[in-house]
Amino acid sequence: MANSLFLDTIYGKVDAKGRVSIPADYRAVISAKKSELVLYPSPTSPCIEGVCLSVLEQMADKIDDTFGLFSEQQSDWTSAIFSQAKVFQPDSTGRILLTQKLLQHARLADSAVFIGRGKTFQLWNPQLYEKAQKQISARVKARANATGSKR
Length: 151
Prior knowledge:
By secondary structure, the chain is an alpha+beta fold. The chain is built from 5 helices and 8 strands. A hairpin with a 2-residue loop joins strand 7 and strand 8.
């Protein structure tokens, strides 16, 4: 059975036109879910969020259920995500053409790194991700130490 989660850290190139190849493992996840690929600027980080359309539908339900329709928080989250989300169809070689808005938000130029996050993935500028990953690791370590977890 095909993997149904986005895993691994995969480096790739961004060409002069703004095209990037979706990793084969990630394309397999999208195919296994019989879904489409959706990308949008992360509302919390300088990266691009990637998700299957089916998972995005689940996110919409969760936002509505959590905050209630027509609440300010529901409006904020749906505006931050859905108003900027776009469906992408990879070409025969697995490439997609990123929009200028996405390229600018994630500060992508000639390279990118795909970060598996289970049901979702992120697309980062490699230098920005390296800095963010150091902060993430420090937070995880601090939480583990605070709860008495040791490895």
